[in-house]
C-alpha cells in the first residue's frame, strides 16, 4: 500500500473525517466486490455526497497522480470495483436521492447510489417501474447497473440497462462535467451515451442518470415447472420462443441448486426434478391467456413432471424467491462460489449444460447451474473453499475452460456481469489485437493518464500477474509473466 498523507489530509478537510477512510480495518471492507478470487486494498476510501464532491475528489486525485475506482454496493461479480491499481475507492452509496419522477414523460432522474428497487418503489404510485432487475436489485445501485450494462431475468423481453438510460451526468477524468443524452431518445451527434453505458467506469464517473420508466403490465402470469432432465428443460425454452412467444423472463436452475434452495427455504420444491423452469408472461390479458395455453402445451410436450401457475402476487413472489435466493443458498454446500456469466446461442443450451458438467467432473469440482435461459446467459457457479489454494487453481482453470466453451459455441464472455479484472485475460478469445487497440484508443481519449478505474476491461502489461503492485491471485494462476 502507498500512503498518500497529503491527499488524505486534503480530502478530510473537504469532506470530514467520517467520509474519508484510511484505517486498515475500514479498508478491508472494500478489498473486493462479490468476485472474491481477486482482492486488493485501496489506499483510501472516500464517500462523496454530491457531483461537486466527486469533482473535488477527481481533481485532487489527478493532482497527485492517484487512481480513482468508482464503487456502488459492491454486488458486482467481475472485480469491476476492486482497486487493483490502488488509489481511491470512490464509494457512491451516499448519493442515493431520487431527484424526480415524471409520470408524463415516464422518466426518473436519480443519483447513481439509488438502488434498482428504490426507483421502482418511487414510481409505483404512477403505475411505472424500472425494468432492469438483477438478482441483487434490493442492493445493487443504478451506477453499478450503468457500469456493467446489467440485465436480470426480465431483460429477455425488456432489454439491458442501456435500453432504459436516456441521459447521464458524468465527471470526466480531468474533473470537468459532461452531460450525455437527455430526457428523450431523440439526440443528435455521436452516441457517447451508448459508449459510456457498459464501460465499467473506465471512461469517467457517472453521478446522475435519466432513466426510462415503463408501465406495469395489465396482466402477469408466472409458471413454475419441473423436468426430468436439464436437456428437456432447455429444449422447452427453445420451443417456447420458436412458437413466437417472448416471455418477460425464463429462468432455469438445476437439481443441485434446487435442493440447496429447498434446504434453505423449505418451499416444498420437488427434490426429484433435474431442473426447475420459471416462465413469466406479461402484457394484455387476452394475449397472455393465449400465450399461457401455448406454454403449457410446450412444457407438456417436453415431458414436464409438474407445473404450477402463481395464484396471486404473494405466490408469484415465492416462486421468484426460489430463483433469486439460489446463489445464497449454495453457501450451504461450499463457503465460496465463483459465478460466471458467459453467453451462448439459445439453440446450444443443452450442449453447453452437458459440457459444463463435464468440465466440473474433469477438475473434481461441484458446479451449480442457474440460467437466464431465454437469452442464453449462463450462470454456472463453481463451488469451492477459498483457503484451499490447490482447489482455487482448479476453479480458475475450470472457469477459463467454461469461457472458452461459450466462445466456441458462438457466444461471448459476459452477458451482464462485465469483464472487470475477472475476464480481462480472456478478451483475446473474442477480440483481435486490432480490436483491443481501438478500444484502448477510446479509453485514452477520455482518460489519457489512465487514472479512472485502471487495469479493467482491456488487457495491458499490468494485467499479467499483478496490477499496480497488487498481486491478483487469479491472474497469477493463469499467467507465468
Structure description:
This protein has 481 residues and is of the alpha+beta class. It folds into three domains: 98-215, Uridine Diphospho-n-acetylenolpyruvylglucosamine Reductase, domain 3; 219-328, Alpha-Beta Plaits (2-Layer Sandwich), CATH 3.30.70.2190; 330-478, Alpha-Beta Plaits (2-Layer Sandwich), CATH 3.30.70.2740. Helices cover 34% and strands 20% of the residues. It has 16 helices and 20 strands. It has helices spanning 5-15, 24-27, 51-64, 116-123, 142-148, 155-158, 192-196, 230-242, 255-265, 285-301, 313-324, 326-329, 349-362, 389-408, 433-446, 473-478, and strands at 20-21, 44-46, 68-71, 88-91, 98-102, 107-111, 128-129, 165-171, 177-181, 205-212, 214-215, 219-227, 249-254, 275-283, 306-309, 336-339, 366-372, 377-384, 466-467, 470-471. The strands form five sheets. A seven-stranded antiparallel beta sheet has the order 15-12-14-13-17-18-16, with helices on both faces. A hairpin with a 4-residue loop joins strand 5 and strand 6 (107-111). Helix 8 (230-242) runs antiparallel to helix 10 (285-301). The longest helix has 20 residues, at 389-408. It is globular and about 70 Å long. 50% of the residues are buried. Mean pLDDT is 93; it is low at 463-470.
List keywords for this structure.
Alpha-Beta Plaits, 7-stranded antiparallel β-sheet, 16 helices, single chain, Uridine Diphospho-n-acetylenolpyruvylglucosamine Reductase, domain 3, alpha+beta, 481 residues, 20% strand
The CATH topology name of the largest domain reads Alpha-Beta Plaits
Spatial arrangement of strands, main beta sheet: 15-12-14-13-17-18-16
How many domains? The number is: 3
The tally of beta strands, per DSSP, is 20
Q: What is the general shape? A: globular
Mean pLDDT: 93
Percent in helix: 25-40%
Q: Which ranges are low-confidence, i.e. pLDDT below 50, for 5 or more consecutive residues?
A: 463-470
How much of the sequence is in beta strands? Answer: 15-25%
Radius of gyration: 22 Å
Q: Tell me which oligomeric state these chains represent.
A: single chain
Amino acid at each position: 500500500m502507498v500512503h498518500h498523507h497529503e491527499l488524505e489530509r486534503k480530502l478530510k478537510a473537504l469532506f470530514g473525517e467520517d467520509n474519508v477512510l484510511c484505517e486498515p480495518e475500514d479498508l478491508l471492507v472494500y478489498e473486493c466486490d462479490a468476485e472474491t478470487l481477486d482482492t486488493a486494498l485501496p489506499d483510501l476510501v472516500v464517500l462523496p455526497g454530491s457531483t461537486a464532491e466527486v469533482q473535488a475528489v477527481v481533481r485532487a486525485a489527478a493532482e497527485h497522480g492517484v487512481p480513482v475506482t468508482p464503487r456502488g454496493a459492491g454486488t458486482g461479480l467481475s472485480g469491476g470495483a476492486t482497486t487493483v491499481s490502488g488509489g481511491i475507492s470512490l464509494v457512491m452509496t451516499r448519493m442515493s436521492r431520487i431527484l424526480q419522477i415524471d409520470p408524463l414523460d415516464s422518466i426518473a432522474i436519480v443519483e447513481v447510489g439509488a438502488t434498482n428497487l428504490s426507483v421502482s418503489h418511487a414510481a409505483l404510485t404512477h403505475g411505472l417501474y424500472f425494468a432492469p432487475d438483477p438478482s441483487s436489485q434490493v442492493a445493487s445501485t443504478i451506477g453499478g447497473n450503468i457500469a456493467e450494462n446489467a440485465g436480470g431475468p426480465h431483460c429477455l423481453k425488456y432489454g439491458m440497462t442501456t435500453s432504459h438510460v436516456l441521459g447521464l451526468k458524468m465527471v470526466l477524468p480531468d474533473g470537468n462535467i459532461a452531460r450525455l443524452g437527455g430526457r428523450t431518445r431523440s439526440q443528435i451527434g455521436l452516441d457517447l451515451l451508448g459508449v459510456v453505458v457498459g464501460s465499467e467506469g473506465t471512461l469517467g464517473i457517472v453521478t446522475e442518470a435519466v432513466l426510462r420508466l415503463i408501465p406495469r403490465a395489465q396482466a402477469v402470469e408466472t409458471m413454475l415447472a419441473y423436468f426430468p432432465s436439464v436437456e428437456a428443460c432447455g429444449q422447452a425454452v427453445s420451443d417456447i420462443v420458436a412458437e413466437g412467444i417472448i416471455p418477460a423472463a425464463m429462468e432455469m436452475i438445476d437439481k443441485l441448486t434446487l435442493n440447496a434452495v429447498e434446504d434453505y427455504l423449505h418451499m416444498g420444491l420437488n427434490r426429484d426434478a433435474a431442473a426447475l423452469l420459471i416462465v413469466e408472461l406479461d402484457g394484455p390479458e387476452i394475449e397472455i391467456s393465449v400465450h399461457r395455453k401455448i406454454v403449457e402445451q410446450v412444457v407438456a410436450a417436453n415431458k414436464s413432471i409438474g407445473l404450477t401457475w402463481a395464484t396471486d402476487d404473494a405466490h408469484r413472489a415465492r416462486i421468484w424467491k426460489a430463483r433469486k435466493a439460489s446463489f445464497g443458498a449454495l453457501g450451504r454446500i461450499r463457503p465460496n462460489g465463483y459465478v460466471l456469466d458467459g453467453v451462448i446461442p439459445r439453440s446450444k443450451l443443452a450442449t453447453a449444460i452437458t459440457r459444463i458438467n463435464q468440465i466440473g467432473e474433469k477438475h473434481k469440482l461441484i458446479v451449480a447451474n442457474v440460467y437466464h435461459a431465454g437469452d442464453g446467459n449462463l450462470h454456472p457457479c463453481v463451488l469451492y473453499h477459498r483457503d484451499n489454494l490447490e482447489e482455487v487453481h482448479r476453479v480458475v482453470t475450470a472457469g477459463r475452460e467454461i469461457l472458452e466453451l461459450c466462445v466456441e459455441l458462438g457466444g461471448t464472455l459476459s452477458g451482464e456481469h462485465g469483464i472487470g479484472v475477472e475476464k480481462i485475460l480472456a478478451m483475446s478469445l473474442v477480440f483481435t489485437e486490432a480490436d483491443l487497440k481501438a478500444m484502448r484508443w477510446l479509453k485514452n481519449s477520455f482518460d489519457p493518464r489512465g487514472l479512472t478505474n485502471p487495469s479493467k476491461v482491456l488487457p495491458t502489461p499490468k494485467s499479467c500477474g499483478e496490477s499496480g503492485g497488487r498481486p491478483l491471485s487469479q491472474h497469477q494462476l493463469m499467467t507465468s509473466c
